[in-house]
Specification:
With 276 residues, the chain is mainly beta. It is 8% helix and 32% strand. The longest helix has 10 residues. The chain is elongated, with a radius of gyration of 31 Å.
Length: 276
């Protein structure tokens, strides 16, 4: 049976006509059936879509080409990841040098765990990109919301940490038109806060800092690890920051931190155990 437009269907059932069984079949096939079509719109949840082929949920077409979809939205085969991908058979993808048809590639993937993937079907991080990332800038976060005064005193810029950490810190302080400006970029590494012996010349937990200042080195920014309250194997520590001298009342140090190491207790270094 065929699907007909509204004008054709109206002609089947206009006054004085005798519709046939075929006409009724065309009418049924031209209507939306919630079970067969796979979607309903209840008030409590809104539009509900169900996959009929275990993969495609939505397909998008251009108005002048009703036969070839440009984009698909669907679930991963045998999985729950949501995929958005271009149709390799459409003109928006290019063939390779040997004129082979391009393979289907997932442009955007989202997992129930909250992971998002670009050009990867199985992301394992909050954002995983299989390709080159171009951005105008990059900024870390602030672990502690309290402003850090530029008063020459030490202030924590991380909570109590344990285990192994590698942090990148970018910090700055300045007063416009005063000639007092300072910028600092630091890579701070700590491996469980070991004690330093008097004969050890090099720091076991180095903080490598690149500094810039305008007028006096007294305006520079310093970093250090604060270690205290060691109780057996529990060795907490925190990263601190300060200016060499006070910048005056209501002046604060701007900074942001990027975490470069994400396995504080080296759990991923251990071989996975298989339960029998």
């Amino acid at each position: 049976m065929a699907k007909r437009n509204r004008s054709t269907l109206k002609n089947y059932f206009r006054h004085g006509t005798m519709p046939s069984a075929e006409h009724f079949s065309d009418l049924i096939d031209s209507c939306v059936n919630q079970i067969d079509e796979g979607f309903i719109k209840p008030p409590e949840t809104g539009l509900q879509l169900r996959t009929l082929d275990q993969e495609h949920i939505l397909s998008f077409y251009q108005q002048n080409n009703h036969d070839t979809p440009l984009w698909h939205v669907g679930f991963a085969p045998q999985g729950n990841n949501l995929h958005i991908f271009a149709n390799p058979e459409a003109d928006i993808t290019r063939a390779d040098a040997d004129n082979n048809a391009p393979a289907q590639a997932v442009n955007l993937s989202m997992t129930p765990q909250g992971y998002v993937g670009i050009n990867t079907a199985t992301p394992r991080q909050a954002l995983e990109v299989n390709g080159t990332v171009a951005s105008q800038g990059r900024k870390g976060i602030v672990f502690i919301d309290t402003p850090v005064p530029a008063d020459g005193e030490w202030h924590d810029i991380t909570p109590e940490l344990e285990g192994c950490h590698m942090l990148e810190v970018v910090a700055g302080i300045g007063i416009r038109y005063s000639g007092r400006y300072a910028l600092a970029h630091a890579i701070a590494i700590n491996t469980c806060a070991p004690n330093k012996r008097w004969w050890q010349r090099k720091d076991k937990n180095p903080i490598n800092v690149t500094q810039a200042h305008f007028h006096s080195s007294a305006d520079k920014i310093q970093f250090r690890w604060r270690q205290r309250n060691h109780k057996g194997t529990v060795r907490p520590y925190a990263l601190q920051i300060r200016t060499n001298t006070a910048f005056g009342e209501n002046q604060t140090i701007q900074y942001h931190i990027t975490q470069l190491w994400h396995d504080a207790f080296m759990q991923q270094c251990q071989p996975a155990t298989v339960e029998e």
